[in-house]
Write a structure and sequence with these properties.
two-stranded antiparallel ribbon; disordered C terminus
Length: about 150
Amino acid sequence: MPLKLDLKTGIRLVINGAVIENIGPNTKLLVHNESSILREKEILSADDSATPASRAYFALQCAYMFPQEKEKYLDLFLPLLNDYTQALPSSAEIGVDIKAALDEGKLYKALKGAQDLVRHEAKIVEDMRHTAEEETGEYLPEAGDDIGNR
């Protein structure tokens, strides 16, 4: 079944490793064959993969975007996933779902699961921040907060 994409001006996506940017008015594309496609909002840069879950996501993203090097990136991804789920057992179900998708050969589905892993990590960090605030009575900035504006 073809995939319909609606690209607004300035939006980028990656199709089979090629970066495509819409530089005109809204564009509609219909992709008829099997392709590795990531929308801009799904792409994580190497510089932005600074946490355990984001590093796992980045490795899996590379396996998806560069099928010729899929095994290399999966060899990087699996230990990252295993380390994460062992350190945070509350993520075990997410890890099981990701591995099941990989076993089925569904890399995009696994990548969506890895997004859940990143969200799980963000929730854990946020919960820890709130707990620390309650215990100390001090405001702790969220990631990305501009401390100078407080």
